[in-house]
Amino acid sequence: QVQLTESGGGLVQAGGSLRLSCKASGRTSNRRSMGWFRQAPGKEREFVAEIWWKSGNKYYAESVKGRFTISRDNAKNTVDLQMNSLKPEDTAVYYCAVRSSVLVDAYDYWGQGTQVTVSS
Q1: Cα–Cα distance for residue pair 28/12, rounded to 1 Å
Q2: Contact at 8 Å (CB) between 116 and 9?
Q3: Digit-coded pLDDT (tens) for 93-118
Q4: What is the DSSP string of 65-89?
Q5: CA-CA distance, 106 to 45, in Å (whole number)?
């Protein structure tokens, strides 16, 4: 079992910045990757960014490249998402997720989500 707790959401004006943090606990020693997803009202959940644990490779959705940065802190067991130059279309509930082991292909544990609202 893995538990994920997000924090850092809020309301910001367009052009502003927010930093989301996801703290992982439980059986995380064999994780393959951790990522961030988002879901806007009336839309399907979409991929935002991920970091692969062994390699440190990072991947981003085209819509956030150059504006968002994913990072990790092994000591704190956290994954952060720094979001700059925010746009109203970034408004969504942001979810942290983990691929908990090398045996799984899909993200199998999810946080409860944190709301990000960008006003124009």
Answers
A1: 32
A2: yes
A3: 999 999 998 888 899 999 999 999 99
A4: TTTEEEEEETTTTEEEEEE-S--GG
A5: 14
